[in-house]
UniProtKB/TrEMBL annotation:
GO cellular component term of the entry, any: extracellular region
Cross-referenced Gene3D superfamilies: Phosphoglycerate mutase-like
Cysteine disulfide links: C72-C393, C253-C267, C414-C421
Catalytic reaction equation(s): 1D-myo-inositol hexakisphosphate + H2O = 1D-myo-inositol 1,2,4,5,6-pentakisphosphate + phosphate; 1D-myo-inositol 1,2,4,5,6-pentakisphosphate + H2O = 1D-myo-inositol 1,2,5,6-tetrakisphosphate + phosphate; 1D-myo-inositol 1,2-bisphosphate + H2O = 1D-myo-inositol 2-phosphate + phosphate; 1D-myo-inositol 1,2,6-trisphosphate + H2O = 1D-myo-inositol 1,2-bisphosphate + phosphate
Identification of the protein by name: Phytase A
SUPFAM superfamilies, alphabetized: Phosphoglycerate mutase-like
Lineage summary: Eukaryota, Fungi, Dikarya, Basidiomycota, Agaricomycotina
Amino acid sequence: MLGISVVLFLLIYGALLVLSLFGYLTRPSPSRVVTDPDDAPSLGVPKHIQKMWGQYAPWHPAGHYTPPPEGCNITQVNILQRHGARFPNDDDGAAYHASIKRLTAARKFADPRLEFLQDYKYDLGTETLLPYGAMQSFEAGAQAFRRYAHLVGPAHIPFVRASGKRRVIDSARNWTVGFAAASRQRYNPSVDLILSEERNNTLNNDCPNAGDGSEQMDEWLGVFAPAVAERLNKAAPGADLGAEDVFNLLAMCPFETLARQRASPFCALFNEDDFRAFEYHGDLEKYYKTGYGEPHGLGRVQGVGYVNELLARLTGTPVRDHTQHNGSLPFPLHGTLYADFTHENEMVAVFAAMGLFNVSVPPDTHEMDPAREWVASRMVPFSARMVVERVVCAAGGESVRVFVNDKLQPLEFCGEGDGVCALESFVESQAYARSEQSREDFERCYN
Ligand SMILES: *[C@@H]1O[C@H](CO)[C@@H](O)[C@H](O)[C@H]1NC(C)=O
Ligand SMILES: *[C@@H]1O[C@H](CO)[C@@H](O)[C@H](O)[C@H]1NC(C)=O
Ligand SMILES: *[C@@H]1O[C@H](CO)[C@@H](O)[C@H](O)[C@H]1NC(C)=O
Ligand SMILES: *[C@@H]1O[C@H](CO)[C@@H](O)[C@H](O)[C@H]1NC(C)=O
Ligand SMILES: *[C@@H]1O[C@H](CO)[C@@H](O)[C@H](O)[C@H]1NC(C)=O
């Protein structure tokens, strides 16, 4: 079994490599290549449903990447990237399994969609990167080379860091393999630095006094889950499922589908409205955990260290930070391409520290706004990436562009709010990261 999956993995990996080389060789302008999202394996679940998987959605572009206008050159690229698809974490996996056992223990199944449970075996691992997640990271590395090949040279190999969790390191390494493959092995970046999660770390959110969004998620669960539980309990009399079980069974759809790379039978138990509610649950978590809504105002401080490192790179000056940055670790400043691998909660903290996705109305825990702009599946799907480009134009001056999953961010806090921000104004706009306030907030994480 293991042998077969290794062979399959290598086959898929090889196919991706060939595809990415083919794409590179047959297209005249590498910086204009856009990876077609529909090239990704279909997984047997409609794409519009996959996009409702919140932070467990597989990567898909949220916009259309465009190179800078004529007369402008990109001079530096900073990529902050989430690990690829993973197994459920330890506690979550145990909870999912327990809910499945409860459902399986029903007196009978009154719905044919439940019959698979008669010989169902829970076989998800925990915590680690999936082959699908490795592919996503590989493809992201290949895309980074294709898009930014002109910034790469023998003296300009990407500088790569990863937070210390296995899946993050594996994502970073698979990214470097994809990058090297797309360059036809001319450039072989390696993971230069692994930042321990036991210490303050700019690629990992950590703030013991901060909330985790569970209160807000529970409120929403109380709104949407009871009716779904009732429906399932009718189909499985005696199972006696509660609201938490509904969430756990819904989560099996993305996790099992991504692990098996074909539709999990759990997906069929739910309708679009259920998945919409599931997605909103993730939006609430991200907003109230490390986002703008953390009740003690300790969400965005968890992204400050990375933002200060970003400012240092963009301006070519040493890091000034009093939060997570560890000044005794190597921090080169004259690179052209930096790639940092992290977790979604850290990315959300960075967004909030920077002022991205600054929605004027906080998401309501009792009512979902279908037109909301704070949407986890577009911000932090598996393999999510924020790319900050430094651009120089003949017309004068350096500026900054920020893409989140290929969508140009308007940067309404800077200039015209049209997505182009003078470098100097960008640095100025990052007042929170540079402030005494963020230093104090960081202390409040611990005291
Ligand atoms: C890519 O990720 C997989 C996990 O799916 C891991 O086993 C493998 O070692 C990674 N590749 C590299 C080059 O680290
Ligand atoms: C991180 O820094 C804070 C504030 O200086 C300190 O209290 C805390 O112990 C550090 N955390 C770790 C894990 O070292
Ligand atoms: C900085 O990183 C080094 C190397 O991992 C470690 O020994 C040191 O304790 C870290 N410093 C702080 C303040 O965490
Ligand atoms: C978010 O927007 C509000 C105004 O709409 C502004 O007062 C606030 O400073 C912004 N927050 C950040 C972090 O940019
Ligand atoms: C952009 O790069 C090209 C090719 O290296 C160069 O000729 C041109 O002067 C550069 N433009 C700017 C504005 O730096």
